[in-house]
Specification:
By secondary structure, the chain is mainly beta. The protein has 2 helices and 16 strands.
Amino acid sequence: MTRTNDTIGISAVLLCALVGVACSSTPPVGGSGGAGPGPTGGNGSASYPGTAGSGAAAGSGASAGIVGTAGGMTGGGGSGGTNGCTPLPANLLLTDFSPATFKVVTDGTTWKTGKADLWGSATSLTGGDAFYRGNAGSALKVTLHGQTLTVQATIEAGDYAGYMFDFGPQCSNASSTQGLQFDVLPDSTLGNATLKVQIQQRSDYLSTANRPGDCMPPSPTTQYNDCRSPEMIVASSGSPLATGTSQLPWSNFGGGNPLPTVDNSQLMAIQWQFECPPDGGTVIASGGTGSGGNSGGGGIAAGAGRAGASGLSTGGAAGSSGAASAAPSGVLGSSGTAGSNGTTGFSEAAGFSGTAGSGGASGSSGSGGSSGSGGSSGSAGSSGSAGSSGSAGSSGTAGSSGSAGSSGTAGSNGRLTPPCVVSFTFDNVTFY
């Protein structure tokens, strides 16, 4: 007898009743895979319609079999663990600056621009380097020598500069580590700068950067305050820099934003940052920089006035004696004219002594009257009056006094602000 679908259905119901399981008249459906970032998918349940288990596997679970006694297939492993960051390799050393862990450059090389693939090895984390600074004059350089690395910079007062190890993976899960460690060599100096180590992590890294992070600043003008890496001060300005091994526990970092502390499961880079204070390096006391005022030129000394020349006086010429005559009395001899007064000496800016006037010449004698019958003798000419002495020359005018020099501009506060001269040598960079 040919079986119909109804007969098959009745037989199936009877079979279900016999084995004590619930039956459905709809075709069986395979279970859906578990969702989520976990490493494995969940197993399907043993029920007839074979639904998938709710495991947090990234891979989807296999559909259950027609008869639900078989479990769903295990899903594929999730990538990168719980937060998608690449797990850190077992070798925690980043570099000891040997050829095995430091590439591209040879001993004695100096460079100023970043290299994409520089440090690490096949068994460790790998990455490159980068440089950053405030003002152009504060830019730094690094030199590889003797399997150590020296960072050098002349950082302007109030400015900063930094050197960075960025990681090859966009994000590294270092949750198995306790902190960062490196060696500081004895010839290192900070020149009054502060040394900070900063840890870039995805929570505090800009979402708009070349390697996007999770931090979304509300404004471009405040983005570097809104998204800020946690940091630790290794040496403050003015304090000595400890040499030897520096261990920086993750728990000692702070000041990040929006996440203030280090989450070592999402690391992106390490930064060594040097900050020169506003008063610069070691302060040198000195005089003010303003120049003093020019002293005023002295006034030109006045020359003494020349003394007036003494007046030249000519004495009146004496009358000549009248000659005796038998004629009537002679006419009286005319008086000698008096000598003219000497000319007054003239003043000069720097006068010499005036020459004294010569004495007046004596007047000539009056001529005697012709002899009359009893001419009287002519009267003698009057003597010329002496010339008056020349007036003294006026004194020279006094030289004007020199104008006072203008006062010099006051010097600044007498303190120079030199830059911070940094030479920082380190080695053996590793997590611990």
